[in-house]
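Aim 2 progress. For ParM/StbA family protein, the working sequence is reproduced below.
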Amino acid sequence: MPERRAVAADVGYGYTKAVSTSGKRACFPSVVAPAVEDPLAGALSGGPGHRVQVRRLNGEIDEKLVGEAALRSLAAVTTLSREKPREMHDWLVLAAAYLCGVGGGGVFPGQADLAVGLPLAYYRSQKEALAERLKRLAAWVSVDGGEERYISFNRVLVLPQGAGAVAACPEMLPEEGLVGVVDVGQYTTDYLLLEIGSGKPVPVLDCCGSAEVGVHLIHRIVAAEFQAKTGAPLPVEMREGVIKTRKITFNGRTVDLYAAVEKAIFDAAQAVSQRVLGAWGNRAGFVRAVLLVGGGSVLLKDHLEKCLPGVAVPEDPVYANAVGFLKALAGC
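Predicted structure tokens for this construct:
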């Protein structure tokens, strides 16, 4: 029987990030859409994203687009609800696991160990149900026409968002005192306050939680400004590109959104910092360092450095949670 692998998946509202013990990584938008037949029969490149085929143990076969490919579909499924739709979450986990090298073929393909995260606000109420569901998840999976591999999970570890960053970056933590973790995602920002003594971080429970603020605030503000200037809605799949370039071509002319994007980033950073500092209360002034992670940290870093004490950003803040989850899984 082949050696069992382990994979950690940080399934966010915006992006799914995953790492495995094989050293492989995957990152793609947390979007799923029905697969459609290519009318060009492959004459042009399929572009970014993935076509995922799942063959369940009852013989049922289904195929969907995942990631960037799904974003371009009018039938794309994403969510901002507290609990991600079960089927959508399963497709994201299976795709991430496959892309990270998990799974096997043959008569005895083996199982993998899995670690996933949940926002702090939903962790207590959802962790057990999520773990049990993922333990039952099993299917033969193929991505982009690759080999079919059987994926199922032996151990499933569910951890709170933000906690992974602590395990991933111990060298960035002070030896003692208060340290914060702020994980800025698409829809939620998770924050922790830890007291470190004897080298071990202990959470200050009444200062840990989730706030429904994140990168989606920037998308919403920029989309509203685009509509005010053009009278047309800005498609969801184009918003990230507009935020990067600060402009877009519409009806043959360039729509300048530089000022709107800059203001949106500032406003989002203010919203995040106010919620975090409000939750930390009178302890905020005693925080020695704040570990800033998550996909939103890249956009908000410059502004949050002015609002939060001692901000430190890991070399790869997007994968920080997934890397920490994998370390936690190895330590079980």
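Residues 216-261 form one domain. This observation will guide construct design in the next reporting period.
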